Amino acid sequence: MASEFIYDKEYNNIAYSKYEINHNEYENCIFNHCDFTEATFTGATFVDCTFNHCNFKESKIGHVGLRGIQFNDCNFTGVNFAMTDQKIYEFHFTNCLLDYSMFYKLKLKRMQFTNCSMVSVDFMESDLTEALFDNCNLRLAVFSDTNLTKTDFYTSQNFSIHPVKNKIKKAIFSNENVKGLLEHFEVIIK
User: Fold this and answer.
1) How far apart are the first and last CA of the chain?
2) Please, are residues 172 and 154 in contact by the beta-carbon 8 Å criterion?
3) pLDDT tens digits, residue range 116-138?
4) Is residue 9 a contact partner of residue 29, using CB atoms and an 8 Å limit?
């Protein structure tokens, strides 16, 4: 299948086949209620696109360019983002299900996660400098050798971050959620 350049198009209620979007480039497109379950995105590029209510569960997204992307109310359960193209890299999540997803060794500076479920997400060795976790459930999320400098966890909950095994300088926490930093020291907070 030859690659295509698609500009300024809206897609509604489409179930994509496994290899249908490989190597295509989409710019300024909107995807509404589309199903990408188990789809393969190899070599695809998305620029200034918005995805609303889409299902990406178990999708393969190797070497995908994501530039200026907004994901709203999408399901990314079990998706591995580790092989995404990191040149001119920017995408944000609002009201998304990201449980069991992997962001291993990615540069995610200034990423925004808003109202997301992020149970057991892997952020090992990632750079989350100045990222925002706004009202996110981070239960069992893995932070190890992660750069969390100036990262905002103020409204998030259920995280467990080891302050010695991560860079947390100037990270933002609330009085209520700071216990997620101290549990590794087995202290008692009353």
Assistant:
1) 63
2) yes
3) 999 999 999 999 999 999 999 99
4) yes
Q: How many domains does the chain have?
A: 2
Decide: 172 and 149 in contact? Cβ < 8 Å. no
| CATH code of the domain in which 89 resides | 2.160.20.80
pLDDT tens digit string along 133-167? 999 999 999 999 999 999 999 999 999 999 999 99
Dist. CA 32–CA 13, nearest whole Å: 6
Token pair for 70? 């907004």
For residue 72, what are the domain limits?
1-97
| 89 and 158, same domain (yes or no) | no
DSSP 3-state of 179: helix
Using CA atoms, how far apart are residues 4 and 23, in angstroms rounded to an integer? Answer: 8
